[in-house]
Amino acid sequence: MDARLDGRAVAESVRAATRQAVESFAQDAAPPALAVVLVGDHPASASYVRGKKKAAAEVGIESTVHRRADSISQDDLLALVDTLNTDDAVDGILVQLPLPDHIDPHAVIEAIDPAKDVDGFHPQNLGRLLIGMPQFTPATPSGIMVLLEHALDDLSGQRAVVVGRSNIVGKPLAALLMQRNANATVTVCHSRTRDLAAHTREADIVVAAVGRPKLITADMVREGVTVIDVGINRVDDETRERGYRLVGDVDYDAIAPKAHAITPVPGGVGPMTIAMLLRNTLQAAQQHRGQ
Ligand code: NDP
Fold first, then answer.
1. Cis peptide preceding 43, ω within 30 of 0
2. C-alpha 236 – ligand 1 centre gap (Å)
3. Parallel, antiparallel, or unpaired: how do β-strands 233-236 and 244-247 relate?
4. Are the beta carbons of 21 and 282 closer than 8 angstroms?
5. Active-site residue, 96 included
6. 169 and 232 in contact (C-beta within 8 Å)?
7. Predicted model pTM
8. Neighbours of 228 (CB within 10 A)
9. With b meaning 16 or more CB within 10 Å and e meaning fewer, what string describes 47-76?
10. Mean pLDDT of all residues belonging to the chain
């Protein structure tokens, strides 16, 4: 059996549903409007923003990119966020991370109106998620949940090991997996975890969100495991025109033969993240315009 869990195909079905819903929304209203703030010229961030803008256009969501130089002060960035918060024509706001070192990302995230926080990173939205009353769920973890629902009939009682405890992936994903509607038994591992393999070997589901190529190897997982690879790592590759290729955190080729399901990189979690962001933006517009 082919264990490949095709994130592009699943994402396309999520996008198609969003496209339809946007179409009917925009019949008697302006299309949903997303404001994207991009600070500096970090090449990966610029490429993510281009991808989001293109994907938004494809489903009928209007997006405006507010580019600011690396040298922008924190106060000026907060002022921009405030302008977008009060602009009635803006439904959703997204500040592309990472931000330059002189800017405190928490201060910027907290400044976003939680009702427009389509990334779901505001403490209010993360808190709501934790207590099982989500408003906006961060796009990567919610995309992972959709992928898991595709791969497995029921997550109830499954042992899930999440490797990585960031605020944008690991922690919200652990919260989603342990909610009453998912009912997985969750272990969260990180850089201080003793004997990572002892944990992953016990798992029915392994999610790697670390940022280290091939951290998860075949000897670290059991037969029949479902593996979600969140990592996006650039490794040098002279055979590619751009000089690098993208790989995940998981040794895909070695694990696929023993896995029930496994996501590739690229083509796994990445497309889901964008699809879920578009869904959140539509939701923001519906809530904002009282629909
Ligand atoms: P962070 O750097 O914020 O977090 C990485 C986590 O991995 C930390 O909790 C860290 O532990 C843990 N870690 C580091 N080394 C080890 C190790 N040897 N063993 C176990 N745990 C370890 O990363 P993000 O969560 O932001 O992103 C993770 C990866 O996912 C990156 O490659 C990123 O590019 C990618 N990503 C992909 C997305 C997509 O759409 N596909 C979206 C978001 C991220 P500690 O807390 O102790 O430092």
1. no
2. 20
3. antiparallel
4. yes
5. yes
6. no
7. 0.97
8. 29
9. ebbeebbebbeebbbbbebbeeeeebeeee
10. 97
Measured CA to CA, the distance from residue 212 to residue 208 in angstroms comes to 9
* Residue 138: alpha-carbon gap to chain centroid: 6
| Pocket of ligand 1 contains residue 140 by CB under 6 Å | yes
Other Cβ atoms within 10 Å of 184 Cβ, number: 24
Dihedral (CA of 155, 157, 161, 167) sign: positive
Give, for 261, the enclosing helix (H) or strand (E).
strand 259-262
Is residue 116 flagged as an active site residue? no
258 is catalytic: no
Cβ proximity of 147 and 184 under 8 Å: no
**How many residues are present in the chain?**
291
Distance CA 31, CA 253 (A): 43
Asked if 205 contacts 228 with a C-beta cutoff of 8 angstroms, the reply is: yes
Residue 13 pLDDT exceeds 90: yes
State the DSSP string of 52-105. HHHHHHHHT-EEEEEEE-TT--HHHHHHHHHHHHH-TT--EEEEPSPPPTTS-H
User: Span 58-87, mean pLDDT?
Assistant: 98
CA–CA distance, 138 with 128 (Å, rounded to integer) = 12
Give the model's confidence band at 291: pLDDT under 50 very low, under 70 low, under 90 confident, else very high: confident
